[in-house]
Amino acid sequence: MTGTPVRLDLSSPSRGPRGKPPQHFVDLTPEERVAAVTGLGEKAFRAKQLATHYFTHLSSDPSTMTDLPKASRDVLTEKLFPPLLTKARTMTADGGTTVKYLWHLFDGAKVESVLMRYASRTTLCISSQAGCGLACSFCATGQMGLTRNLSTAEIVEQVREAARELAAGEIPGGPARLSNVVFMGMGEPLANYKSIMATVRTLVAPAPDGLGMSARNVTVSTVGMVPAMRKLADEGIPVTLALSLHAPDDELRSELVPVNTRWDVDEALDAAHHYFEVTGRRVSIEYALIRDINDHAWRADLLGEKLNARGKGWVHCNPIPLNPTPGSKWTASDPRVEAEFVARLRAHGIPTTIRDTRGSEIDGACGQLAAEEDE
Length: 375
Known about the structure:
- By secondary structure, the chain is α/β, with parallel strands linked by helices.
- It has helices at residues 30-39, 45-56, 70-80, 152-167, 193-204, 226-233, 250-256, 265-279, 297-308, 335-347; strands spanning 85-93, 98-105, 110-117, 122-125, 129-132, 145-149, 180-183, 218-222, 240-244, 283-289, 315-321.
- Helices cover 31% and strands 18% of the residues.
- It is elongated.
- The mean pLDDT is 90.
- Residues 1-25 are annotated as: Disordered.
């Protein structure tokens, strides 16, 4: 273990003890946006103008809203676009194509997000909570404990700002569109279910009411909150579900991922398979490979057997070399052991791809986000 164990916290604060973020335009449905605009004495069509500026032009700056009268734009932006995130620090790697953002929220809470630009796509990893209450022992975020849930607008603002920088050509490689969003930053997304689903709906809503992304390019991860996984299957939005498993046996998984004491391996896998059955979307199994802890060949065989027991073609496995975190005695598997683990899974017919670890040198890779202020 790493230091003093953090208590598993399955509480669901609506906003947390620090208070409720100011209501933002993004927190409202399209109908509520019209009501908010008319409530400020403006014409209803101003709501569509504001949505176009925010979701299409990626701006909440009143100086850019030249199709609105100045008096109107100043009032509307002051009331409907309160500042929620302040960029405290930006760190880069991979020639500037990997960018980690540290955000200060309105109440001083801190979160991070990571932008990763590849040749054929650009992916943003976003946070849904400040900290995390699920206490996974190898994860820097999990060792922070939970500060509070993020609001829908606080989550979407991470996306808008990254998309704006990308569209403006501020990321090496020239102007481009943000193609993928993954809820794999700080926090357990399904523990903040209402906000992440409102975010997903905003991401996939066509312009001008949302960002117009494909649901297939949005990934929601979970360590296995089974009731919420089953609820997600019934939403009718075919996002990709990623289950962070990390061990196929209950004895070890309960040590690594304490939520396993509430919903065990088989319950989590059953819920993941149910998601596939309902949506037709192949589920990703995330598995951090930890040297001499969970990387044994027999565990690869057990994982393959458990996945195949639920059918063929429903799952894809992503082993992830463990990313180092401060004070941890654990490290990534030996490359030969990693190769054997992958070979065993493939021998069971499980499609398997080693996950990229971009951003590890700036503590921006999986399991490393801790919102540290110091360089």
